[in-house]
Amino acid sequence: MDFKTALVKLGERFGFKRLISDSGSILNGVLINEGIPSKLSLLIYPEIAGENYRKLFENVTVSMEFELLKTECKENGIIHCLYSVQKQKN
């Protein structure tokens, strides 16, 4: 069973309709590759992390296009951007 089908079945069984991933770049990459997200929420921090910090997405093998839905300025110069997935290209 593929990951997307498993999530649909889990949603049907337990009644959830939304999956939020903030656990790390590997799972984020899997979700992107499977074409699962319909939205992408990013927080942009005003600092440069350097090479010792992990990426947002690992092992992504597809391209996606996004449409910006909204931006919001938070405390300390943090910017929240919400995007809608327009299409996935293989």
From TrEMBL:
Domain of life: Archaea
TM region positions: none
InterPro entries for the chain: DHFR-like_dom_sf, RibDG_C
Residue span, Bacterial bifunctional deaminase-reductase C-terminal domain: 2-78
GO biological-process terms attached to the record: riboflavin biosynthetic process
Single Gene Ontology MF annotation: 5-amino-6-(5-phosphoribosylamino)uracil reductase activity
Protein name in the entry: Dihydrofolate reductase family protein
Organism field: Methanomicrobium antiquum
